[in-house]
Amino acid sequence: MEEIKEERQPSLPLMRPENFEPEEVTDGAVWNETLKSCVLARLANPSSKRMTAALLERDFGIRIPLNRIYRLMDHVTKHEELIRQQVKLYESISRRVANTIFRCNDIVL
User: Fold this and answer.
1) Tally of CB atoms within 10 A around 64
2) Least confident of 16-25, 54-63, 96-105
């Protein structure tokens, strides 16, 4: 995969009217899919929100309006405490599963 440079290019879509969503996105599944796509894209190639949107569209055919990515950040901030609690729960469960697996490996038959 080629490296994406963090610079303004004329080919990148700027805030054109089609990048704006007229209605408020209220469906949790839409937010989850948007977040998942953005996180995976930024893990693959850390860059700005604008470059993330361009990368998703160019490399994966996933078109997410830039405005939705910006609104996603507001949505995440609004639910920050709940997200932190869920992350702690998953970390706890992961540790327990890992400990159980390691203990099972110590058993000699």
Assistant:
1) 20
2) 16-25
